[in-house]
């Protein structure tokens, strides 16, 4: 039986197609004004990392948050592209032998397998720095203050107290630096940093791009934090129940390494209930916007209902 596409599915796919087109344009071989050259191997590896993969949930959240708050699509797209480039960089580095040591990502060889370790490191570096270039691009829709706020927020979400710090905690959780058993609070902190911080910022970035008030920014950030926590629990459930073919990557690696998750700590049924609670929390953060927030409300449901 074929899957019937809902209006939300169509909207997500349309946004993903737009993001894909923008990424393709960003990552072609033609040097831009001010650039000396774009090395062919580096560009090929960057395209391998960033194109033709994923649902583009993070840029979708940025775009829809901008739309919700009355900002121009171009501003939301730029913010979303910056977040997605950081996300793609993080996957390339996470897959390296020194980190998670994965061979497959999105159904194809990881960058260090398709190219080599050194190229993969440089790909991550290049995608990260390109993200900040994109965030600072001038446009009639983005004031200098908005661009500065995007850069500051992106740095905070992706850096030492966000995604990078979370990866450090994740390595420690594997027992690399001595025996380590995480409490529930420690697992939640790790996940809020490694996965949640950037996903939460995607929603806030859309509010920033729209020039929203501090109050509305806080609402979108609260929504993003709850959604990010739900996303990680759903991911841990999929890691136990889905196949490698469905996910396009290896499954069961956390269990192999003895790395604690909320599925382990709470049990499967309680983890599902916590996922539902977090979705309700995300939706409640959007309540002041009423029906206008319908797409983002649906995005929270999609996060826990996805099968890959």
From TrEMBL:
<dbReference type="InterPro" id="IPR033749">
    <property type="entry name" value="Polyprenyl_synt_CS"/>
</dbReference>
<keyword id="KW-0479">Metal-binding</keyword>
<dbReference type="InterPro" id="IPR008949">
    <property type="entry name" value="Isoprenoid_synthase_dom_sf"/>
</dbReference>
<dbReference type="GO" id="GO:0046872">
    <property type="term" value="F:metal ion binding"/>
</dbReference>
<keyword id="KW-0808">Transferase</keyword>
<keyword id="KW-0414">Isoprene biosynthesis</keyword>
<dbReference type="InterPro" id="IPR053378">
    <property type="entry name" value="Prenyl_diphosphate_synthase"/>
</dbReference>
<dbReference type="Pfam" id="PF00348">
    <property type="entry name" value="polyprenyl_synt"/>
</dbReference>
<keyword id="KW-0460">Magnesium</keyword>
<dbReference type="GO" id="GO:0016114">
    <property type="term" value="P:terpenoid biosynthetic process"/>
</dbReference>
<comment type="similarity">
    <text>Belongs to the FPP/GGPP synthase family.</text>
</comment>
<dbReference type="InterPro" id="IPR000092">
    <property type="entry name" value="Polyprenyl_synt"/>
</dbReference>
<dbReference type="GO" id="GO:0005737">
    <property type="term" value="C:cytoplasm"/>
</dbReference>
<protein>
    <recommendedName>
        <fullName>Probable farnesyl diphosphate synthase</fullName>
    </recommendedName>
</protein>
<dbReference type="GO" id="GO:0004659">
    <property type="term" value="F:prenyltransferase activity"/>
</dbReference>
